[in-house]
Design goal:
four-stranded antiparallel beta sheet; 14 helices; alpha/beta; homotrimer; 448 residues
């Protein structure tokens, strides 16, 4: 199993901008970004989101959009903005527990302000734990129903004595804005490739600081390249963020030809691909081709209308070709939405592999074209063009003969290079290399 | 595995006629009908058929049709009517064997009258036994070639001494009529659902008194319901009966949108479904969906041009969407066409399960509609409509959230509820319930 | 497993020319032809090819075409003609090795003339061996790059002492002709069935003297028959031969409706079928049907653009329905392209089986027609036509009842007999026999 990362065709081919990134460095840099963002308390709105976008903006020139609370976005309304400074519980014995300042998961995300004394019985109705993982703090939210609450370890819950508790949440839920970041990198074509990550989770690393880190580094890398497609990067709160963007950019969304929701790319699980609603879109075929050739044990997941923002991009009124490429997938790892989704769960090595896989997919999209064999009647004589070996010696061109023959045989205008790769069993980059050699020999021309 | 019988959507939904039958009672009633009909000697014509139809008419208001012998029906001619009063063989020792009055299978069905003395050698050319089941009497017919004969146990055959035998068959094969029963229950739509059972077999319980009993009770049950489709029930002799009905109702047959041949529904074997010739008709999808979700170990059988009356309904000139839903299938149980297909082989419990499965299928047909999501751009906010849980609590609506999301995502005019059920893996009734909730929330409208 | 060889329908049906060949004799005759041709040194051009065609012409009336060197054929040019009289190497100790007259594989095919003394080091650059089979001589060619060389056993190579060697190749590479043989047998239809074999290999039996022998005997056999299709037999050098024929017969090629490349049909391996590029052409379906019903363990190979002359016939500008039916397939047996592909590897028994399989396939092509059921509404009454048994007795017609029912049910103009055979699971010849019986009973007519 090897990744094609270091010699992506569209980066190293003659006439194209060169130099693939040093993957080790990229893996470390992604991890560093996660470390920087980890302490911030994010939500679907508020200053935590702004701080996050500010840190990203140090690396790539995103535009930050502020959408006022109350804005109607399709069936939804942009909610009030939530901010929080402190929160804790004081036990009957005077102990301070569930301190927001020690871990921001301790507070039910979007809690309204509260400061009062309650008996244990009432308090328990506002406490959330994970009995199956008694030492972990769960992550819970209440965006669209006003509530307050605390999350803590089940071990701590079990130890709480009867008596009166002081609960304190110093939060504000007031009209404000929904903030999101956006970066557009123009390419030769107006057709866009979308990378969308959610930025609403507080101290949770795999879901989804890893997605933020990968998207940021992908944008940074692609910004320096000559590109066929245009690329759009969205850093948005989950659900309400994608709904907001789609509502404000309904026409623009039609230009999205391919897309991926970037999430859970930092853990050590095998790769997973959740297909777009279409199921056989080019992005689906491209990702699955790369995974088949480079990632043993990957999982292919049919679209279902749950999970991350692909739910919105794939709603029937848009039906965009947007899938989701991750390591462990939505809800399928024990640390999901708990304090165990921390800086130990994600690792530079895994981030690096994910980054490389995303680049491989982009390489397919950038180079997948449909050619017409200019000598369709019988095979052309490859030998006289230096493209065919004699007496068993390898051809000097470095191109696989079988790849040449497949490209010639199937370049009838009905097969793009990716479908030739799929039918032949050859990896895309070998098919692409063969096509390039044949194009240079005037044996191929791109289809009208 | 559970059957949906007791809460079929189309029976219990608001505004629809309520009250599913008490299945225990239905099972017992079906069995009682079988017991009543068991002694009668039926054939493709004759008074046994009339007596059978008369008993059915005590329960449901069927019309009895009498088609004269000699009537041309496509390539066939309605045969002479056969009636029989008595038949037996007297052995050289004076013993009376193969007595028709003890078991009507003893006589070759459609035997011409005979009364003469024959030596054992000649007699044997008219005797039929089952050496592989030496104690069972086989069931044999000779409708279209004049002949006489007796069926008996192989044990008895082996014990017959040489000598002269008296054979006596008091039958009449004369111009008369072919009799069949028909019931039409009109629904909102002119499109019909056909249930067809054959009534030509004498004392044989699974094949096909069970089919008669199930069809009768289905008709009785549906007659009291408000129905989307119209329903037609045919009680006909096999082959010549369906050919006759199709020949006399060629235009009417075009209104049959879905249909099932009802047979072998009383034994304890796993369910079997033989698909229509079309193979992917709605009836095929509906039955297989129900079996997948409620009947472990069921068998899916591709159409073949043999078996029961689906042969005629699926002839290329009609090609109706008619399959056959049974327990053990045609010829696939040892008791098939023998005296062992008796009142012990069929049981109220099995009849009840079959009845419930037929109701489940009807439920799918009645409720399978195609809707259009009225909020197709992004998901609607289900929470504000009380259709979505918060903080992990189950939604108060009793509707599965995944079912809601699937219906919304696929209600693009190209998927009926059944196909949404199939793609989602949810049972049809959950999808139907979700669709109803969404319809009431104005989020769905039926497709034009 | 039995082959249908001895009663191919199109040979033995009433009104058709009778008498299948004696397979034992055919197997022996094929083997004898291989023995006659084995010693000849063939190449893509030259007198060896002419001698081969002359021997074939003793058996069937082929036309021999001579295409001048230098003729442009699509992207290629007919090469100079190669002839050789002698070749050998004399070792420092005076031993004569790699003698062409002992085995014509010893010389690199298409070697230019050479006569000089060289040291062992230089000589080794012109020697080819097979270290993995140290006693076998490999077969090597250099058609399109001028070179000289010798092939020998690796054992001998390892024993060569240092010193000066005399190399001698008495060959001529001069303008001349490319020779090929062709036979056309007209049938009722202008649509042609192509059988193409390559005749360029020297002393190699399975690849492809076996193909020459089978093609010759097939032509001899079919020439005496009344045929529906026209048949074309090509005896051509590999690659350049098919390219030449296609270039000179571009319009004629459009009449080829079905075709097979005949090669490697004499060894004892299981049958293999490499599909045409189309993949579901009638020839693909016919061959696979026959193999499924008669040849256990056969292999079904998807088209790939390498192998034998199907590469040219299936180039995108022609895309002919030409597959390749063999025993062991291209490159997949250890003796491939070595001196071990000799008279021991091929056997009359295997040749006979291959011949029979080819005849079975031709039988399907000749008799595969589409009929229309003239009594499409319900089943016709087969009994009154003597086509249906009564009381379990086999029908006198010798026709399977299920085959009759399948043909009637599917003869709606959309299914040819082969597809009816495939869907029913019945062998084609039973379906064909049933169709013939129904046609004679006026129940079928051929589709428009």
């Amino acid at each position: 199993m090897s990744c094609r990362f270091l010699n992506c065709g569209f980066m190293t081919s003659p006439g194209r901008t060169a130099a693939a990134p040093d993957t080790e460095v990229v893996g470390e840099n992604m991890y560093q970004l996660i470390k920087d963002l980890y302490p911030i308390c994010r939500s679907i709105t508020g200053n935590g989101v702004r701080a996050t976008l500010k840190r990203i903006a140090q690396q790539i020139p995103i535009t930050v959009h502020e959408v006022p609370s109350g804005t109607r976005v399709f069936d939804w309304v942009v909610p009030s903005e939530w901010n929080i400074d402190d929160a804790y519980v004081i036990t009957p014995t005077g102990e301070k527990i569930a301190e927001f300042k020690k871990h921001n998961l301790h507070v039910l995300n979007y809690s309204i302000p509260v400061h009062k004394k309650v008996l244990l019985g009432e308090l328990k109705q506002h406490l959330y734990t994970l009995p199956e993982h008694p030492d972990w703090i769960p992550y819970r939210t209440s965006y669209y129903k006003e509530n307050w609450g605390f999350c803590l370890s089940d071990t701590q819950l079990q130890s709480l004595p009867d008596g009166e508790y002081e609960v304190f949440i110093d939060s504000r839920l007031e009209p404000g804005h929904l903030s999101y970041g956006e970066l557009f990198i123009p390419g030769e074509s107006e057709t866009e490739v979308l990378f969308s990550c959610h930025i609403c989770h507080p101290s949770l690393c795999n879901d989804n600081l890893s997605g933020i880190a990968l998207t940021t580094h992908l944008a940074e890398y692609l910004a320096k390249r000559k590109l066929r497609y245009s690329y759009r990067f969205l850093f948005i709160p989950g659900t309400i963020g994608s709904i907001t963007w789609l509502a404000l950019n309904e026409q623009r969304a039609k230009k999205i030809g391919h897309g991926l929701v970037v999430t859970c790319v930092g853990d050590g699980g095998p790769f997973s691909y959740k297909k777009s609603r279409r199921g056989t879109a080019e992005i689906d075929r491209a990702v699955l081709h790369i995974l088949r050739h480079t990632r043993e044990g990957f999982r292919e997941i049919e679209f279902y209308p749950y999970g991350y923002d692909e739910r919105q991009y794939c709603s029937p009124g848009f039906n965009l070709a947007v899938g989701s490429l991750s390591r462990s997938s939505h809800g399928q790892f024990p640390e999901y939405h708990t304090s165990a989704d921390n800086l130990d769960l994600v690792q530079p090595q895994y981030l690096k592999e994910s980054f490389a896989t995303y680049l491989d997919v982009i390489d397919v999209l950038e180079n997948n074209r449909t050619y017409i064999n200019q000598n369709p009647k019988c095979e052309p004589q490859l030998g006289k063009r230096g493209l065919y070996s004699s007496i068993g010696a390898p051809a000097g061109s470095g191109v696989r003969e079988m790849a040449l023959l497949w490209v010639l045989n199937l370049s009838d205008g009905e097969h793009d290079l990716l479908s030739i790769a799929e039918r032949s069993g050859e990896p895309f980059h070998e098919i692409d290399k063969a096509a390039e050699a044949l194009r240079q020999s005037k044996l191929l021309e791109e289809a009208g």
